Amino acid sequence: MTPDSGERAAALLSALGCRGPAVVARAPGRANLLGEHTDYNGLPVLPFAIERDVLVAGCAATDGEIAVASTDARHPPRRYQAAGRIAPFPAGDWGNYAKASTQALLDAGVTLPPGGLALRVDGTIPVAAGVSSSSALVVALALAQLALAGVSLDPLALAELLARGERYVGVLSGGMDQAAILLGRPGHVLRLDFFPLRCRPVPVPAEAAFVVAHSLEDAAKSGRARGLYNQRVVECRLACAVLAERLQRPLEHLGEVPSGDVLDLLPDVRSRAEVMEDARLTDAEFARLVPATVTLADPDHFVLRRRVRHVLGEAARVVQAERALAAGDLPAVGRLLDASHASGAVDYESSTPAADALVGIAREGGALGARLMGAGFGGAVLALVERERTDALLATLDDRFYGPRGTGPQARFVAAPSAGASVARVDCPEGLC
Ligand code: GLA
Question: Is the minimum distance from the CB of 40 to ligand 1 under 6 angstroms?
Answer without folding.
Answer: yes
